[in-house]
Amino acid sequence: MRIASWNVNGLRACSKKGFGDWLSGAGADIVGVQEVRANEEQIPNEVRNPEGFATHFVAAERPGYSGVGLFSRETPDEIETKLGVEEFDAEGRLQIARFGKLQVVNCYFPNGNGKERDNSRVPFKLDFYRALFDRLEKGLRDGEPILVMGDFNTAHRPVDLARPKQNEDTSGFLPEERDELDRWLRNGFVDTFRHFHPEAKDRYSWWSQRFNVRAKNIGWRIDYVLASPGAMPYVKAADILHDVMGSDHCPVVVDVAPDACR
User: Fold this and answer.
1) Cα angle at 169 between 36 and 222, to 5 degrees?
2) Strand 102-108 with 146-151, pairing
3) Among 39, 261, 243, 250, which Cα is nearest to 146's?
4) Which of 5, 46, 114, 223 has an alpha carbon within 20 to 30 A of 108's alpha carbon?
5) Strand boundaries in the chain, DSSP class E
6) What pLDDT is recorded for position 115?
7) pLDDT for position 81
8) Which residue among the candidates 191, 224, 249, 255 is catalytic per the annotation?
9) Does 108 qualify as catalytic in the annotation?
10) What was the pLDDT predicted at 117?
11) Half-sphere exposure of residue 38: CA atoms within 13 angstroms, side-chain side
12) Where in the sequence is the active site (predicted)?
């Protein structure tokens, strides 16, 4: 069973660049997308209702901003979309979908940049991380299988971005952001890509759209699938699909044993 996550940088725009063809041919059973940037009724019908998939979308209150979507071969047993904090829930960043015993969390974590690219949203970003962790902690402790996937907007280690020295003061690689991701891992979550590719270098999931940097592979690894200890025995592989175009991000995937849901 393949589970994929992709920040599509606007689902309407991505649909014009081949998203539907990718979805139908990716062999994925569950796909979470982030940065949908549209209300459900604005999404083209062939993407809103693709053959063979159940869909669910969450939009931000602010038009053209944030938003997440879920495509799945099987309809989830239930989907939760709120953390109970108004300022977080207004931004449409979360889906917690249950498939049998497996929880799949599709999340678009906030960027720490303010309007002036001044790191002013870092406290908001960290508070969001902590609120989601608190929501998942009981299941984590109880050994439930949980996968948290999405755009985390944080590169964890220097190996996870092409130019760490130049970005030490940039949101996405600030010490306090990296420390928060460290906290998730210390408490049991596993970075699935690093688990299967511990020595991999130059493996990124996001590239600036300026200066042709994707062709030069000057990127950041900020998209993850984290697995709880209860989920990790079912995870058989993880990868980054660098060759998939259509967004400034590329998809990340895990292959999971089907009995994770049973």
Assistant:
1) 35
2) parallel
3) 261
4) 46
5) 2-7, 30-34, 54-58, 68-72, 78-80, 94-99, 102-108, 146-151, 190-191, 206-207, 219-220, 223-227, 235-240, 252-256
6) 84
7) 98
8) 249
9) yes
10) 79
11) 20
12) 108, 151 (proton donor/acceptor), 249 (proton acceptor)
Residues across the chain: 262
The single residue of 151, 160, 223, 239 carrying the catalytic annotation is 151
For the stretch 121-128, contacts whose Cβ atoms lie closer than 8 Å and that sit 24 or more positions apart, written own/partner, are 121/171, 122/171, 122/174, 122/176, 122/177, 124/87, 125/153, 125/171, 125/177, 126/176, 126/177, 126/180, 127/88, 128/83, 128/88, 128/93
From CA 88, how far away is CA 60, in angstroms rounded?
Answer: 10
In the chain, which stretches have pLDDT less than 50? Answer: none
249 flagged as catalytic: yes
Q: Which residues are annotated binding-site positions for Mg(2+)?
A: 7, 35, 151, 153, 248-249
Domain 2-261 matching CATH 3.60.10.10: the answer reads yes
Separation CA 39–CA 37 (nearest Å): 7
With 0.90 as the threshold, say if the pTM is over it.
yes
What six digits make up the tokens of 145?
């299988």
By CB atoms closer than 10 A (0-12, 13-18, 19+), residue 48 is: middle
In 3D, which of 121, 105, 99, 136 has the Cα closest to residue 171?
A: 121
**Which residues partner with 34 through β-bridges?**
7, 68
**Active site annotation includes 204:** no
**Tens digit of each residue's pLDDT (9 = 90 or more) over 115-129:** 887 999 999 999 999
Q: How far is CA 107 from the centre of its chain?
A: 5
